[in-house]
């Protein structure tokens, strides 16, 4: 496999999108490129070519990983081809619906746990934002994640027939009978022959269930 090099332009553009320089975002770039190179697929333009499944959660260290994955693969929140399976892990699974093939990249335990002992993470844990850190603390980690052979960063699992049920895009919408807001049909529900959005229907049902005495 020939790995696509992360150019200075891509790094700069992804840092602009992400908001700051840090090592976790480029680790996501790296994971995204390795996965695409392994599967021999280009970056997603629409929502149907690729699906990225990330296992990071929210409000924990190195969550920035997800932004690098999005930037590299084109699998984004808006296109609906980025799925967060919040397990508190740093794996990326990239799935190709057309061939049903997938790869899962998971950082080596030793490397990730060693990173946690470095000043970068100690200072971050103390509440110092990444953009206020001394570049002497941040830059070696960024260079490391950009230049180390990918096999020293990630382990790779390959799937020939990954279990995944695609959800078709919906192009229909209805008007909620109560709040009158436009609601995508698959998110609306009918009750007594009227369409309702979820909060309005919940409100109606809740009011009916409320004790009357
Ligand atoms: Zn970051
Ligand atoms: Zn409503």
TrEMBL record:
Record keywords: Nucleotide-binding included?
yes
Concerning InterPro entries, the annotation shows: FmdEsu_dom, Pa2218-like_dom_sf, tRNA_methyltr_O, Tubulin/FtsZ-like_C
Question: Which Gene3D superfamilies does the UniProt record give?
Answer: pa2218 like domain, Tubulin/FtsZ, C-terminal domain
Please indicate which superkingdom the organism of origin belongs to: Bacteria
Q: Which GO terms describe its molecular function?
A: GTP binding
Instruction: Give the Formylmethanofuran dehydrogenase subunit E domain ranges.
Output: 17-154
Signal peptide feature range: none
- Does the record carry GTP-binding as a key word? yes
Name the UniProt key words of this record, in alphabetical order.
Answer: GTP-binding, Nucleotide-binding
Name of the protein in question: Formylmethanofuran dehydrogenase
């Amino acid at each position: 496999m020939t790995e696509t090099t992360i150019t200075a332009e891509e790094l700069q553009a992804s840092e602009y999108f992400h908001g700051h320089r840090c090592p976790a975002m480029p680790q996501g770039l790296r994971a995204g490129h390795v996965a695409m190179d392994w599967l021999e697929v280009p970056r997603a333009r629409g929502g149907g070519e690729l699906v990225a499944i990330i296992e990071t959660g929210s409000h924990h260290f190195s969550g920035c990983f997800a932004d690098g994955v999005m930037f590299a693969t084109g699998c984004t929140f808006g296109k609906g081809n980025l799925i967060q399976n919040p397990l508190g892990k740093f794996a990326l699974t990239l799935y190709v619906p057309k061939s049903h093939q997938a790869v899962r990249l998971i950082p080596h335990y030793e490397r990730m746990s060693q990173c946690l002992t470095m000043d970068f993470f100690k200072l971050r844990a103390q509440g110092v934002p990444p953009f206020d850190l001394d570049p002497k603390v941040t830059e070696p980690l960024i260079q490391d994640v950009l230049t180390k052979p990918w096999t020293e960063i990630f382990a790779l699992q390959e799937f020939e027939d990954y279990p995944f049920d695609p959800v078709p895009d919906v192009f229909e919408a209805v008007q909620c009978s109560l709040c009158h807001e436009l609601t995508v049909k698959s998110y609306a529900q009918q009750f007594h022959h009227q369409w309702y959005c979820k909060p309005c229907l919940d409100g109606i049902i809740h009011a009916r269930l409320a004790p009357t005495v």
